[in-house]
C-alpha cells in the first residue's frame, strides 16, 4: 500500500485537488484564500503564535490564516506537486513526510501553539497513526491546541469520503476520536462541527433541519441507537495538549 501511496502522492495535485475543485488551479484564488476563517474563534488572539499545518496540501489553510492576520503560519506536505503549486503563491510551505518532520522538530526542541491536521488521519496505517498523534503532543506548547478534521463514519454518506481516495485507510466516529485522544492524554476534546457549520440562510437552515430529522429516523426510530454527536461527512475536533 505504501508504494501505491507514494505513486499517487507524486501527482496528488493534478489527480486529486484540481480534479475535485477547479479553483485550486488558480494561484490568485490560493493567495486570497479565506480557508481557516471558521477556526479563528478557537485560536489564541495573539497573532504572533506559531501555527503549523501538517499535510497542508497546496497551502490554502496557511494562506487563509495569514490573511486573517496570523504571522507565523507554515505547512508541510508529502506531495511535491502540492508544494510547488503553493510556493507559486509565496506560501511558507515545504516538502516532507509528517513523521520525519515531527522527529526533527522534537530533536530540535521546536514547539507550536497550534497544530492543524486536516484530512490526514484517514491516510495513516496503525503505526503511522500512533506516531503522528503521539509526536504532535511532543511539539505542542504547554497550552497548545490540536485541531483535526477527518472522515466521520457516522455520516450516512461516509462511504463517499472513505472511498473517494485510494490512499484512505480508515474513518472515525465521535467515540473512536475520543478514545484515540484520551489514550494519548489529550484533554478537553470538543467537536466543532456545530459551531463552524452554522446555517447562513433559510435554505441552509431547512436543509439542516431535514437532514437532522432523517438521521433521527434512521438512528433512533429504525436502528434504536443513540443519535450521533456529529452527522457531517467530516468530523472536526479540537483538543488541548494535557500533560506530556
Largest pleated sheet: 7 strands, mixed
DSSP helix count? 11
Mind telling me the CATH class?
Alpha Beta
Major β-sheet strand ordering: 3-2-1-4-5-7-6
In CATH terms, the superfamily is Vaccinia Virus protein VP39
Which stretches are poorly predicted, pLDDT < 50 over at least 5 residues? Answer: none
Mean pLDDT: 91
How many separate domains make up the residues?
1
Distance between termini? 32 Å
Blueprint (SSEs and pairs):
Elements lengths: L1 H9 L1 H9 L6 H5 L18 E5 L5 H8 L4 E6 L2 H8 L5 E3 L2 H10 L4 E7 L7 H14 E12 L6 H6 L10 H10 L3 E5 L1 H4 L5 H21 L11 E7 L4
Parallel strand pairs: 1-2, 1-4, 2-3, 4-5
Antiparallel strand pairs: 5-7, 6-7
Question: What would you say this structure looks like, in words?
Answer:
The structure is a single chain. This protein is of the alpha/beta class. The model has no long low-confidence stretch (mean pLDDT 91). It is globular and about 55 Å long. Helix 6 packs parallel to helix 7. A seven-stranded mixed β-sheet has the order 3-2-1-4-5-7-6, sandwiched between helices. Helix 7 links the parallel strand 4 (112-118) and strand 5 (140-151). The protein has helices at 2-10, 12-20, 27-31, 60-67, 80-87, 98-107, 126-139, 158-163, 174-183, 193-196, 202-222, and strands at residues 50-54, 72-77, 93-95, 112-118, 140-151, 187-191, 234-240. The longest helix has 21 residues, at 202-222. The protein has one domain: 3-Layer(aba) Sandwich (Rossmann fold), CATH 3.40.50.
Amino acid at each position: 500500500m505504501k508504494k501505491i501511496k507514494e505513486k499517487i502522492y507524486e501527482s496528488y495535485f493534478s489527480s486529486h485537488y484540481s480534479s475535485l475543485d477547479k479553483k485550486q488551479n488558480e494561484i490568485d484564488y490560493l493567495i486570497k484564500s479565506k480557508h481557516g476563517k471558521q477556526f479563528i474563534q478557537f485560536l489564541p488572539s495573539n497573532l504572533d503564535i506559531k501555527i503549523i499545518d501538517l499535510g497542508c496540501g497546496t497551502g490554502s489553510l496557511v494562506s487563509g490564516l495569514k490573511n486573517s492576520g496570523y504571522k507565523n503560519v507554515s505547512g508541510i506536505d508529502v506531495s511535491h506537486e502540492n508544494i510547488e503549486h503553493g510556493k507559486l503563491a509565496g506560501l511558507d510551505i515545504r516538502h516532507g513526510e509528517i513523521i520525519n518532520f515531527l522527529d526533527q522538530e522534537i530533536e530540535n526542541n521546536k514547539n507550536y501553539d497550534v497544530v492543524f491536521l486536516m484530512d490526514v488521519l484517514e491516510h495513516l496505517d496503525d503505526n503511522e497513526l500512533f506516531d503522528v498523534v503521539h509526536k504532535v503532543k511532543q511539539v505542542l506548547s504547554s497550552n497548545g491546541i490540536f485541531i483535526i478534521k477527518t472522515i466521520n463514519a457516522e455520516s450516512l454518506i461516509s462511504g463517499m469520503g472513505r472511498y473517494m481516495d485510494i490512499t484512505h485507510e480508515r474513518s472515525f466516529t465521535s467515540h473512536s476520536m475520543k478514545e484515540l485522544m484520551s489514550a494519548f492524554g489529550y484533554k478537553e476534546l470538543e467537536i466543532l462541527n456545530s459551531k463552524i457549520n452554522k446555517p447562513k440562510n433559510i435554505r441552509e437552515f431547512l436543509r439542516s433541519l431535514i437532514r437532522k430529522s432523517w438521521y433521527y429516523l434512521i438512528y433512533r426510530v429504525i436502528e434504536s441507537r443513540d443519535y450521533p454527536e456529529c452527522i457531517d461527512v467530516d468530523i472536526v475536533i479540537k483538543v488541548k495538549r494535557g500533560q506530556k
